[in-house]
Amino acid sequence: MQTDNANAETRQAPDESPNPKEQVVLRAARAVFLAHGFSAATTDMIQREAKVSKSTVYAHYPNKEDLFIAVVEAECASHTRKLRDIEFRPGMLRETLTTLARAYATIVLSQAGLALFRIVIAEAPRFPALARTFYLAGPSVAAELVAEHLADAVARGELDLGELGRDAAARQFINLVRSEPQLECLTHPDAAPSAAQIDQWVAAAVTTFVRAYGRG
Amino acid sequence: MQTDNANAETRQAPDESPNPKEQVVLRAARAVFLAHGFSAATTDMIQREAKVSKSTVYAHYPNKEDLFIAVVEAECASHTRKLRDIEFRPGMLRETLTTLARAYATIVLSQAGLALFRIVIAEAPRFPALARTFYLAGPSVAAELVAEHLADAVARGELDLGELGRDAAARQFINLVRSEPQLECLTHPDAAPSAAQIDQWVAAAVTTFVRAYGRG
DNA sequence: GTCTATATGAAGATAGAC
DNA sequence: GTCTATCTTCATATAGAC
Q1: Which residue of A39, A125, A212 is in closest CB contact with B39?
Q2: Helix (H, G, I), strand (E, B) or coil at B156
Q3: Which single residue has its CA nearest the C1' atom of nucleotide D15?
Q4: Which nucleotide is nearest to B40 (CA to C1')?
Q5: How far apart are CA A204 and CA A215, in angstroms?
Q6: What are residue B214's phi and psi, to 5 degrees?
Q7: Residue-level pLDDT at A20
Q8: What angle do CA B190, B200, A154 make, to 5 degrees?
Q9: Any idea what the CATH number is for the domain that residue A133 is in?
Q10: Looking at the 3D structure of chain A, how many domains does it have?
C-alpha cells in the first residue's frame, strides 16, 4: 500500500478524511442548524463550532442558504440510506410490519430525525424544494418499502385491503406508525422515548392495521 | 340602550373594538409570526403591519418573546373553541366519527392551523411551555371528544376496542386522521387541499378505524 | 399611550495579506 | 485555502417630546 503517493494529495481521501475543511464545516453546520433552525442559527456559531474562520465557511459555500440546503440534503440522504438498510427476516406479515415500523420509528424519533423534521417543516414556505426532498427521502421511501411487503402479503392471502390501493394502504400504515409518537416527542422536547416506549407505539400501530386489513 | 355611558370608555368594547391598539398589534403580530416564524419575523414588520410605531408595540408587550407567546396562546384558544363548537347529530358511530374527523381535519389543514403547527414545533426547544399548551389545546381536546363518543359506541355494542383503552384508541383515531394529510400539506406548501380532498382523507381514516374496531 | 429619533449590538458577507 | 479585520445592514430595544 501507498507505494505511489506522488499525487496522493490531489485526491480526496475517500473515507475518514483527516481534515478537509469542507467536511468540518458541513458537520458543524449540521449541528448548528439542527439545534437552532435556519433563522436563529448564525454563521458565527457554525464558524466557532467548526473552529475555522468566517472566510473558510464562505470559501466552500456561497452563503447561508446554500449551506442550509447542503445540510438538509445530506441529512435526508443519510436517513434514506438507513431505511434501505433495514434487514428483513422471512416471516409472517405481522413480524415484517413490526420490523419495518420499528426501524422507521427509531429514525423518526431520534434526536436527528426530530430536529430535521422541525427545520424542514418550519422552512418549507421559504425552501419548498427542500420539503419535497425530505418527503421523497423519508416518508415516501418508507411507504414504498411497506407497499412491496403488502403486495407479498396480499399474494399469500394474509391481507385483504378492500377498496384501498396498495400504495394508499402503505402510506396509511407508515403515517399510523409515525403520527402519535412523533407529535408526542415534538411537543415534549425534554423527554426522549425509550426503546420500550417505541416498541409499544409500534405494536399499537401494527395491531390496528392488522385488525383492519389482516385476514386470519 | 346606552342611557348611562358615563364610564363607558373605561370598559373594553366587548366586540368589534374600534381601535384599541393592543388588538391591532396582536393581530399584526399574529399575521407576521404565522407567516415567518419567530426568528425571521421582526418587530419592524409587526409595527408596519399594525401601522403603529415601535414604542406602541413595546408599550403593550415587553419584548418579542412575550408577544410571540401571546399570539400562540390566542391562536390555541381559538382552535380549542372551534373544536368545542362541533355540532353532532345523533347517528351511528361512522357518522359521528366522520363529523368529528372532518371538523378536526379542516382546522388542522387550514392555513392558520398549518402555520401554527409549523411555528410551535419549530420553537418547541426554545418555548417548551408553548408546545405543551398547543398539545393540550388541540390534539388533546380532540382526543377527549373522540373518547366520549367511543364510550357511547362501546356501550351500544357498535365497537370492540379489544385490549386498547378508550383514550389510547381515541388518540390513535385523531392521529390517523391528522397524520397523512398534515404531512402532505406541510411538505407541499403551495397546494391547498380542497374540501373534497379532505373528505377523502377523512373517509380513509374512518374506514380503517371502523374496520379495525367496529362490530357489525 | 403614542410618536420620532436613536442607541447599541449583532448579523451576513467581503477585503486583502499570507 | 485560510486567516484577521472590517464593511454594511438591520435587528431589538429605549429616550424624550407631546
Answers
A1: A39
A2: helix
A3: B55
A4: D11
A5: 18
A6: -75, 155
A7: 87
A8: 110
A9: 1.10.357.10
A10: 1
